[in-house]
Design brief:
Layout lengths: L1 H22 L8 H10 L9 H11 L12 H7 L21 E3 L9 E3 L1
Antiparallel strand pairs: 1-2
Helix pairs in contact: 2-3
C-alpha cells in the first residue's frame, strides 16, 4: 500500500514539474538537434523497456516538455495536444527525417506499445 502511494505521488510530481516547465518554455523553441543529441548520448545496446521515458527526456532536452505516458498513448498526445509543431504524416512514400517520432500500438507481447525518434 505504501509503495502504491509513493508511485502515485511520484506521478503527480512529474506532472507538476512538466506543467511548471511548460510555462517557462515557448512552444516554438523545439530543437530537433538537442532532442536527438539526448537520445544518442543515452542509447543502450539493447532494450531496457524505457522507450517512453527516453522520448520524454529527449523532448524536454529539445525544449518541449511532455508528460510521461505509456508509449502507445503518445500518438494521441502529439496529435491532440501539441498541434503547433507536430503532425501526423502519411505512411505512403514516407521518407524519415531527423526528429520524426513513431508510435506503435500495444500488442500482447508489448502491452505498453513502443515509441522511437
Amino acid at each position: 500500500m505504501m509503495k502504491k502511494k509513493l508511485i502515485i505521488w511520484a506521478a503527480i510530481l512529474i506532472v507538476i514539474i512538466h506543467v511548471i516547465s511548460a510555462v517557462y518554455h515557448e512552444r516554438d523553441s523545439f530543437s530537433v538537434n538537442a532532442a536527438s543529441r539526448y537520445l544518442i548520448e543515452h542509447a543502450y545496446e539493447k532494450s531496457h523497456n524505457r522507450c517512453a521515458w527516453h522520448i520524454m527526456c529527449a523532448m524536454n532536452a529539445g525544449g518541449q516538455p511532455v508528460p510521461l505516458l505509456r508509449a502507445c498513448d503518445y500518438k494521441w498526445y502529439f496529435r491532440d495536444f501539441l498541434d503547433t509543431q507536430f503532425y501526423e504524416v502519411p505512411s505512403e512514400n514516407y521518407i524519415p527525417e531527423k526528429g520524426d517520432i513513431v508510435v506503435f500500438p500495444k500488442v500482447a507481447s508489448h502491452p505498453y506499445g513502443h515509441i522511437a525518434m
